[in-house]
Amino acid sequence: MSFFDMFKSRAATAPVARERLQILLAHERMTLGPKNLIAILRDEILATVAKHIDIAPDALKITMGQHGSVSTLEIDVELPTEKIAPARHMPMRATA
Amino acid sequence: MSKVVVVTSGKGGVGKTTSTAAIGAALARTGKRVCVVDFDVGLRNLDLVMGAERRVVYDLINVANGDAKLTQALIRDKRVETLSLLAASQTRDKDALTEEGVARVIEELRGLFDYVLCDSPAGIERGALLAMRFADEAIVVTNPEVSSVRDSDRIIGLLDSRTLRAEQGQRMEKQLLLTRFDAARASRGEMLSVADVLDILSIPLMGIIPESEDILRASNLGAPITINGSTSQAGRAYEDAARRLMGESVPMLIPGEKKSLLTRILGRRAA
Ligand SMILES: Nc1ncnc2c1ncn2[C@@H]1O[C@H](COP(=O)(O)OP(=O)(O)OP(=O)(O)O)[C@@H](O)[C@H]1O
Ligand SMILES: [Mg+2]
């Protein structure tokens, strides 16, 4: 190790910290369980629905359940009627 | 509508209690009715930081167990009349707190206050889980340092799985409060930068609180740094964070960046 390297590694250790954390946390998020799965699913489903319909984040409910021998994933999206109604009525208004 | 917010971190000593007091006082000064609740049973400190340590008669456990009425246990701040404190017990151990008891207290607090801020104990065990259990939102307090960031990631996982909201399939709002930030050290690459921490934890940023002697002074005096309106940089940073919690959009200044940009421009002109 040259004198310059020593100086450099002393000064900027943050990039090393960042990289170590990224590797460690990627691993820990996997092993510490699927509990994050619901949160991830919720965010992704919300993003997908929100692309087409204007919904509040609270309008989406996701629950995982166990009914006898089957596991279920329940997705409940509350749609604002007035927000999807115009799309349906549009052709009618066009003919009128 | 009343909001219950947990101030949590996983790692100890990162600034949860300081932040609960500072944000609580800042919110209360805008006229909101605020109660700060100490969940750190056995190691209570919020009373001290709030300057109310000699006024504690009843505590959270007394109320949760039905030994005292909530109104008897609430300590009204003498400086800001919309601010109250519910202290933790110093003598009982943390198993004295039951989930049903906490549920009842939180429900009653919701009826009296606009904001209920729950100061979580460190760790990821029972005490920390009870503090977050009934929250609508979370403030994740993190220092720009590897072990704190790792523990925050762990806490985020728990917020998304072990809170009532998460179990009911609802979204748990989480915001990052980066505290004890030293802009000079971050710019020299000695400390994780704001961007690094945000990138790793990927939750919205609520504020950046600089490392500051004023914080120590404030806790020495038992006066939250925002209690008199802020004269210090850290106090202003906490006030901005409180306004963001209320849903206002306040521009975020990343400490050090403004200065470096300015010196860059000045430097160029001089050249
Ligand atoms: N921005 C800051 N600048 C300087 N010192 C700070 C800052 N924030 C907090 N501190 C100091 O750090 C110490 C720990 O803060 P605090 O008690 O708020 O942390 P905590 O997360 O509540 O700790 P615990 O996990 O033990 O409950 C205190 O001495 C406090 O004064
Ligand atoms: Mg504390």
From TrEMBL, chain A:
**Name of the molecule in the record:** Cell division topological specificity factor
Task of the protein: Prevents the cell division inhibition by proteins MinC and MinD at internal division sites while permitting inhibition at polar sites. This ensures cell division at the proper site by restricting the formation of a division septum at the midpoint of the long axis of the cell.
> Keyword Protease on this protein?
no
Q: Which NCBIfam families match?
A: minE (TIGR01215), PRK00296.1 (NF001422)
Return the Pfam families for the record. Answer: MinE
Which family is annotated? Answer: Belongs to the MinE family.
Question: Where, by residue number, does the polypeptide cross the bilayer?
Answer: none
**What is a biological process (GO) this protein takes part in?**
cell division
Record's Gene3D superfamilies? Cell division topological specificity factor MinE (3.30.1070.10)
Automatic annotation (TrEMBL), chain B:
Tell me, what is one Gene Ontology molecular-function annotation carried by this entry? ATP binding
Q: Where does ATP bind?
A: 11-18
Q: Which GO terms describe its cellular component?
A: cytoplasmic side of plasma membrane; cytosol
Function as written in the Swiss-Prot or TrEMBL entry? ATPase required for the correct placement of the division site. Cell division inhibitors MinC and MinD act in concert to form an inhibitor capable of blocking formation of the polar Z ring septums. Rapidly oscillates between the poles of the cell to destabilize FtsZ filaments that have formed before they mature into polar Z rings.
Native organism taxonomy: Bacteria, Pseudomonadati, Pseudomonadota, Alphaproteobacteria, Hyphomicrobiales
Give the species this sequence originates from: Rhodoblastus sphagnicola
One GO biological-process annotation of the entry reads: division septum assembly
Q: Which NCBIfam families match?
A: minD_bact
Give the quaternary structure. Interacts with MinC and FtsZ.
Name recorded for this polypeptide:
Septum site-determining protein MinD
Query: For the CobQ/CobB/MinD/ParA nucleotide binding domain, which residue ranges apply?
Result: 5-224
From what superkingdom does this record's organism come? Bacteria
